[in-house]
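task queued by scheduler; priority normal; single chain, no ligands, no partner chains; default sampling; output format set to structure tokens
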Amino acid sequence: MKDKRCDGCVFWAKNSAPSNAHRDDREGWCHRYAPRPTSSDWPHEVLKALVKIAWGDLDAPELGGLKNTWEEASVTGITYWPMTTGADWCGEFERAP
């Protein structure tokens, strides 16, 4: 598995910026699977509703007011290829020609 690295994979696109970095530290993007954009905040809203249902009565004194620990987040709709280093490996390596 030593030779199964991102920098030897057909799906890896090396960063075009000149780099004096060691081979293991060079950066690039994994193009194994295309990023999947979402068109709205629906995954976040579903998760928030499920948390409220599952946690039910979180105002109970023995829980110490956990109800206020839900953090609001939003989906920006921005998609990107994941950044990896040459030494990384996702487990789905395919040797570059």
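post-processing summary
- The chain has two domains: 1-35+80-97, 36-79.
- The chain has a mean pLDDT of 75.
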